[in-house]
Amino acid sequence: MKTKYYYIFSIFLIVAIYGCNEDTLDLERIGSVTGKVLDKETNEPIQNVKISTNPASTTTFTNESGEFSLLKIVVDSYSIQAEIEDYRTGFEPVNVVEDGIAEVVINLERKNTENQAPTQPELIYPEDGAENIGLQVEFVWQASDPEEDDIYYTLNLRNGTTSEMQEFEIVNDTSFTVNNLNLSTRYFWQVSAKDDDSEVTESSISEFKTITALDNPYFFVKKENGNNVIYSGDAIDSTSTSVDQNLFKVTSENANSFRPRKNNTVGKIAFLRTVGGDAQLFTINLNGTNITQVTANVPVGGFRLEEITYTWSDDGAYLYYPNFDKLYRINNDGSNRTLMYQTADGSLISEVEIPDFDTDLLLLKTNNYQGYNVRLFTYRLSTNAEETVILDNIQGAAGSIDITADANKVLYSRDVSQSQNQIYRQFEARMFVYDITNNTSIQIPTDAVQGQNEYHCRFSPTEGGVIFTRVNNNFGASPVIFSLLFSGGVEDNELFTEASMPEWQ
Fold first, then answer.
1. Which residues have CB under 8 Å from 113's CB, separation 6+?
2. What parts of the sequence cross the membrane (predicted)?
């Protein structure tokens, strides 16, 4: 009997040990590629064609039927390259799946030997295998033509995840910038060159991978397809002359999204989006994922949606927003909407800010239904009383408010032309800083000239400067975002073109 039990126990022990070994086994997932290479004009098979892959895996040659096989290839996205003398190099994208066989057909064109073709383009940047490349890439290559003919380049760029291919035509220039690449994505690129009479010469295929996370400090709005679209971007340094750096599209051009506000505590962007004619509050991750609608039954409302702002609480738990003469607080998940303030005279609340170090204090801007008769003041929630009046019953438009963390200074914009008209057109908006301690207001000196407006102003994260929109006051003028450091004098730094409503965090 003991022998029987010992035998059974031994079997279970062996199975258990084998099962443990099975769990720790880390096998490579592999698949295969088969294909055929044909003459593009005659459709005849071509033998002895060198077949290679990028990323590199293995190399083989076609047989007399023009066929080839690449066996036991690690699962990945590849470019299959076919090379043989007297033919232009060809390539085809392919995705290798586990235990599958991917099939490709490569059609090669014969070279034209009557005219000397440009030299094979040499890819300079991004370097092959580079990683952590930004989402805005300036592709650089070099080539020459023996007869100094004009060279027509084609930049082919393939997304290794989606296999989407983009093609860009360039004449003579040996660099080209592509914006808004995807995060954490491997790209393959190749440049071809030809002159008016020659065959095409092609570079090798190079690959690179984009950054895995965003660290852009700027957020703003651009117009696309009739809608506002939220972007993030970067700047090399405060004195750089480069603009539109590292652009990343946060929201889709298929919806009207505007007025971005970032909260560093929760790592999200809040923004306004029109839904069925109303403006609703939304939140979204910095990389454009996990979009969440916050408001619903009581939307954001008041005088002109493009003039309305809202704000986060410092800890990111709440959002404060206006609805005509009322100010609400709502949890960032859309729950527990609470009325926080209501104007006594029915005037509209258009803007609200809260200083980081005094969450009991509100900075509010109110106006009438035409956008004028502006009041800008601070309000203490615990005492239900106004504390400081910055502007009261002024002539003309004003707004674009912000407040320092210690609630000592208030930033705002005001049309010094004092115009009041039916279409709320501003003629000479300028930025001001109000010192609450001294009750003084000083205009910020900038490079603006007559006929330009400056608004949508925000303090920099250190409060040592501002970011703002500058635009000519004529209808349809293209806005530009600038920054200005207070310590640098009148030295405006252009950041983003055709952009407005900036946020700097």
1. none
2. none
